[in-house]
Amino acid sequence: MGEPESNRALVRPAAEILPPEKQTNQTPFALQIRFDLQAIRQQQAAARFSLASAKASAWPRLSTYAHVENDAKDVVANGSGNWTIAAKLELPLFDGGMRKAREQEADAQLHSLQAQERATLLSARSMVAGLQNQIEDLTRRYSTAQDAVLVEQEALQTARDRYTAGHASLSD
User: Fold this and answer.
1) What's the whole-model pTM score?
2) pLDDT digits (tens, 9 = 90+) for 36-71
3) Cα 102 from chain centroid?
4) How many C-beta neighbours within 10 Å does residue 115 have?
């Protein structure tokens, strides 16, 4: 009472202590930016393409071919011209089980990558959840420590006021 404010504060006031920001659930973001998951997803896309191409080789294929040739010196001048147009039909009659083996290999690769993705997702979720729990624990510890600092500041101020008023000794 009656003292200037500059003489009163021995420790930082509580207003200068910044409270921690509220943390949000970071799991979806963490799962999107993981490079190992992105690599697995790209490998899965390649395995799907490989499986689709292996399955597509079971069907008949039709292809066409065209060729034009001009023997003249100038393109617009008269000269002999040759041309060819062809169509080709391929029927897979017997491949010795190679197509089925390629399908099974691509399917097994795809299933392996899907299992690897699930395991990586579980591991990532577990890691992110553990880190978030640590953040929440540290936030609670920070809040408790901040409350203790406020209580001690109040006790210090009370002791200073009592000493200033002459109601307590210097050792108190």
Assistant:
1) 0.52
2) 888 999 999 999 999 998 888 888 888 898 887 766
3) 32
4) 10
